[in-house]
């Protein structure tokens, strides 16, 4: 690492620490030539491979703007969206690959979005999974219902129980 002050070609690391979510490391460095100190930040890169084959760096902002559209009119705050994007990034990084295909991002969004808001989830899934009929919606809703029922911690409105 070159010294930004005197352009000396070497520097010494005097302290390293990871940021809170572990996605970057800050290093305090000192130049052995001029003695001045500076900080560098290292990010593990996460690259997205688009369907066209082009690549771009992962961006939480893009996750947020993609999901925000599905959340229009829903009780979802900007904080919820930011947290969702963070969870998506963590899930992708946990796979341990430096490159991720774009469709895997959609998959990584579905889980946390479903926990956040089921209507937004259905909207997003309908675009992402290219629902093209009512049956696609019906089966997605059936899956949501089936997985919700065993929880049983909150009372279910009587209307939805009429079958039993
Ligand atoms: Zn220097």
UniProtKB/TrEMBL annotation:
Q: Which organism is it from?
A: Arsenicicoccus piscis
Task performed by this protein: Negatively regulates transcription of bacterial ribonucleotide reductase nrd genes and operons by binding to NrdR-boxes.
Gene this chain is encoded by: nrdR
Q: List cofactor names only.
A: Zn(2+)
For this chain, the family text in UniProt reads:
Belongs to the NrdR family.
Name of the protein in its database record: Transcriptional repressor NrdR
Give start-end positions of each zinc finger (unnamed). Answer: 3-34
The segment(s) forming the ATP-cone domain are 46-136
Q: Which UniProt keywords apply?
A: ATP-binding, DNA-binding, Metal-binding, Nucleotide-binding, Repressor, Transcription, Transcription regulation, Zinc, Zinc-finger
Tell whether Zinc-finger is among the UniProt keywords.
yes
Question: So which domain of life are we looking at?
Answer: Bacteria
**Does the record bear Transcription regulation in its keywords?**
yes
UniProt remark on cofactor binding = Binds 1 zinc ion.
């Amino acid at each position: 690492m070159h010294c930004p002050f005197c352009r000396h070609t070497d520097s010494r690391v005097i302290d390293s620490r990871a940021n809170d979510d572990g996605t970057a490391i800050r290093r305090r460095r000192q130049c052995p030539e001029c003695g001045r100190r500076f900080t560098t930040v290292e990010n593990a890169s996460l690259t997205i491979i688009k369907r066209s084959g082009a690549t771009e760096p992962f961006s939480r902002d893009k996750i947020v703007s993609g999901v925000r559209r599905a959340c229009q009119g829903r009780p979802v705050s900007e904080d919820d969206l930011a947290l969702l994007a963070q969870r998506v990034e963590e899930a992708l990084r946990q796979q341990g690959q430096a490159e991720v295909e774009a469709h895997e991002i959609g998959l990584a969004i579905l889980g946390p979005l479903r926990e956040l808001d089921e209507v937004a989830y259905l909207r997003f899934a309908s675009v992402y999974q290219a629902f093209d009929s009512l049956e696609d919606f019906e089966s997605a809703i059936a899956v949501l219902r089936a997985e919700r029922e065993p929880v049983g911690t909150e009372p279910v409105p009587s209307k939805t129980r009429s079958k039993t």
